């Protein structure tokens, strides 16, 4: 079994908080992780899945049922399906406040976070579980498999790329037809939603054009923004906000868009195999999104993630603001012999970062005379990022 890097912090919080929530996209491994946790005080574990009608029926009178199991650690999967349970959990926790009463699993963060925050403030700790990160699976020659397939366990562990692609294609279709349509309600059309998800693939690594999407899909801009919020709330997409502190430059203020999991993006973009990917004009955007997500999975919310672009062409793919408020400028290049643009140099003059990097797939670490470090993604994650975060 692949060890999940978030495990220790989850166990630490289980030893203190009555409720721990593990959120993340469907099929990322939340249930597997929760069932294998060594629960403090060796409590017996009771697992309930709210997608099962039988388990929902048990919670028809949730207070009475859960009182019968107050000595156990109760795992409630897909808890956002039953938002009315949160006040009941609060009452049960306040009646018997001890660690590791409940583990809540959810794949739709807006509903889960809103309801739990209102009802369980001071009683709950949150953890995000993403698909496998590169560091979690890293070993010799694994980078390109992980990049192409992404980190969803069923895709990454598939016997070959063809079956990984088949799983990802089915997953993307099922996500749209079941989850998005269910959340949006009667107004949703599965075919149009699938078209929307695929159209977004053209914006990977680019600034979102809401008007263009609105005109293409014949939907109001407010509807497009709502759909984007739902995708982001389902942990599948990310909008990278621009840095626009007043530094005397005309700056871009439109966010950039990324599918978070590279394998999901490749399925949406219909890149059938690795050769398709390498030959695609989108290979640079794919690599850029992949690197940003790997950095996020390791650094988490300790950093602020932005990009920088001026009207004159100065640009930084990723601007990290560290816990010490230091700036780190990162340019992401698919080439192992990257050319450094004048725009990147201009950005360094504007931003005056503490560190500057060019991240590639496989290049050896080189510190240039101008202070820019060229480094491969694995060495950056293992060696440089920990120092930046220290």
Question: Nutshell version of this structure?
Answer:
This protein has 390 residues and is α/β, with parallel strands linked by helices. It is 45% helix and 17% strand.
Looking at the structure, what is the overall shape?
globular
- Structural class comes to alpha/beta
Low-pLDDT windows of residues: none
The strand count comes to 13
- What fraction, in percent, of the residue positions are helical? 40-55%
Number of helices: 18
End-to-end Cα distance, whole Å, is 29 Å
Instruction: Kindly estimate the percentage of residues that lie in beta strands according to DSSP.
Output: 15-25%
Backbone CA Rg: 22 Å
List the helices and strands and how they pair.
Elements: H1 7-14, E1 19-23, H2 30-36, E2 45-49, H3 53-58, H4 62-67, E3 73-77, H5 85-95, E4 102-106, H6 109-120, E5 124-128, H7 134-137, H8 143-149, H9 153-156, H10 161-184, H11 190-200, H12 210-217, H13 221-233, E6 237-242, E7 256-259, H14 262-268, H15 274-279, H16 283-299, E8 304-309, E9 315-321, E10 327-332, H17 342-351, E11 355-360, E12 366-367, E13 373-376, H18 377-389
Helix pairs in contact: 5-6, 8-14, 10-11, 10-14, 12-13, 16-18
